[in-house]
Amino acid sequence: MTASERLRGIPKASAKATGGGERGNAEPQTYLMPQWIYNVVLALWLLSDAYRVGRAAMTESGAEQWLHWLLAVILTGNAIYALRRSAPAARSFSWAQAGWVMVAMSWSFLFKIAPLPGGPTPLPALLLQAGATLMFGASVYALGGSFSVFPERRAIISSGVYRWVRHPMYASYLLLDLGFWLANPQPWFAVVWVGEVLLLEVRSRWEEEVLAGDAAYVEYQQQVPWRLIPGVI
Q1: Left (φ > 0), alpha (ψ -120 to 50) or beta: where does 33 sit?
Q2: How distant, in Å, are the alpha carbons of 57, 154, 163, 165 from that of 207?
Q3: Which of 6, 50, 70, 139 is most enclosed, with most CB atoms within 10 A?
Q4: Does residue 101 belong to any structural domain of this protein?
Q5: What is the pLDDT of residue 28?
Q6: For the chain, what is the domain count?
Q7: pLDDT in tens, 16-38
Q8: Is position 207 within any domain?
Q9: Residue 211 falls inside a structural domain
Q10: Within-domain flag for 163
């Protein structure tokens, strides 16, 4: 299946992106399922993550507990946003993409395979995880109803944390797990983290294949050249 065959919808050109973004004018499109089904599935996934993080927080104390409670609140708010989404201007879907996304979403569970040392989390790792949590929250706030799992074109967001990298939410995942690695310096965790970088790199390229159908996003790519890590990729 080619890239053009994966695209669901052929939008018209949109206006130039602003801080909050403007959704391009597009003809109504027919998708595999009604939009509300996509929204409910995404909301349930986010709520399951919030529940898992909240349960972890109940067994912790101190700064780690507060960080997990904050993340649970952000995930719950993101689920509410997900239920309000309208249909995108374009969506890309293939079973290869679906499998890749599922692997990327569950990749962090590999950190749980190796036994963890006891003791408090070192301060540098804790600060990195705190920064990652705040970046994730800022990404959710900036995206609003534009958040999605599969490649979709909605509003073009270029404000807030999106001024630094084009995929700050993915960058927050990497920072969070990097903090976990620093707190638990084991060779296995290094391998898992590098694998996560590769997974998110490919996933972001698929998304940009769809987003580049909007001239405003092409201009945004020129203004913000880095996808995940400033100065690197």
Answers
A1: beta
A2: 32, 11, 18, 14
A3: 139
A4: yes
A5: 39
A6: 1
A7: 333 333 333 343 344 567 888 88
A8: yes
A9: yes
A10: yes
